[in-house]
Design a protein that fits this description.
Helices cover 31% and strands 17% of the residues. It is of the alpha+beta class. The strands form 2 sheets. Strands 5, 6, 7, 8, 9 and 10 form a 6-stranded antiparallel beta sheet that branches. A hairpin with an 8-residue loop joins β9 (240-247) and β10 (256-262). α1 crosses α9 and α4 (80-87) crosses α5 (89-96).
């Protein structure tokens, strides 16, 4: 848990919750706040299984998975190849869209080019290619405060990343579906109290209303579950994943788009996977044990 990504604080919360749950079930747990000595610490601990509660790079992008593979250690969640693809939004599109998974169009742009003009008609979304938890996401609108064109002094992801993914903005509603093994749990609608479902909205209590089950037509709920399960399968995911969607409710099922697949979903008190599991009668410790069991198969 922990590490040095932008999602370190969330990872520490996920890891603490997982460790306490495993201990409550009678397991012997070694907590490792990941540093550059992680391989030595893992070798010393000699675990039966590693519960990977890291978020972002390098814990979610295949780097840690590759290290664990080389060390011959079993670990939770997706393997190296699945992780490499899923954290990269462009690679994810290339893997899923040819199989009929609807995702927004878009293209990679140099951040410096944004100061000369818009890459897409406004409104559009700019996001890092390989960050999670809505880190660095900006919605550029006609009347936004970034400037037109975007001003070099405006605070945004163009100041942190050399390249960004530009996608058309999809109006409508934010939906998410958790997958555990071969089971799509259900659909939650996320209603931020203000703005959009960004990092603060995800991890600050009270800023986002979670509606489960989402108040949506049955065909949309079934489509979310089917697309999440198929994306999990196509990417070769293991353990838990969570698929995030935007749904333009004026277009029916044609307005449903997958945004991304998270291979290391949060396991904090506010996280969506434990919440969906709880609504389905599965306690937090039972969920953690199920993830461990799959890693040991």
């Amino acid at each position: 848990m922990g590490g040095w990504s932008a999602e370190r604080a969330v990872s520490l919360l996920s890891g603490a919750g997982v460790a306490e749950a495993l201990e409550s079930l009678g397991h012997r747990v070694t907590r490792i706040d990941m540093g550059h000595d992680v391989a030595a610490r893992l070798a010393e601990a000699a675990p039966d299984v590693v519960f990977n509660a890291l978020h972002g790079t390098p814990g979610e992008d295949g780097a840690v998975q590759g290290m664990l593979d080389l060390m011959g250690l079993r670990y939770t969640h997706s393997g190296m190849v699945s992780s490499v693809i899923a954290i990269d939004k462009v690679l994810t599109k290339q893997a899923l869209v040819p199989h009929g998974i609807p995702m927004p169009g878009g293209r990679i742009v140099k951040s410096a080019s944004l100061y000369e003009g818009d890459p897409l008609p406004r409104p559009y979304v700019l996001k890092p290619v390989n960050e999670g938890s809505s880190v660095g996401v900006a919605i550029v609108t006609e009347d936004g405060d970034y400037g037109n064109p975007i001003a070099p002094g405006a605070v945004g992801p163009w100041q942190e990343f050399d390249e960004l993914l530009a996608e058309p903005f999809i109006r409508g509603r934010e939906l998410t579906t958790a997958v555990l093994g071969d089971w799509a749990m259900g659909v939650t609608e996320l209603k931020p109290k203000s703005g959009f479902y960004d990092y603060d909205s995800k991890y600050t209590d009270g800023l986002t209303e979670h509606v489960y089950p989402a108040d949506i037509p049955d065909e949309i709920a079934e489509a979310c579950k089917a697309l999440a399960l198929e994306s999990h399968r196509l990417l070769g995911c293991k353990g838990c994943s969570r698929s995030d969607f935007r749904w333009d409710d004026e277009r029916g099922v044609d307005g449903l788009f997958l945004l991304e697949v998270n291979t290391q979903p949060g396991m904090t008190a506010l996280s969506l996977v434990p919440e969906q599991a709880r609504h389905n009668g599965m306690s937090y410790p039972e969920l953690v044990q199920k993830i461990v069991d799959e890693a040991l198969l």
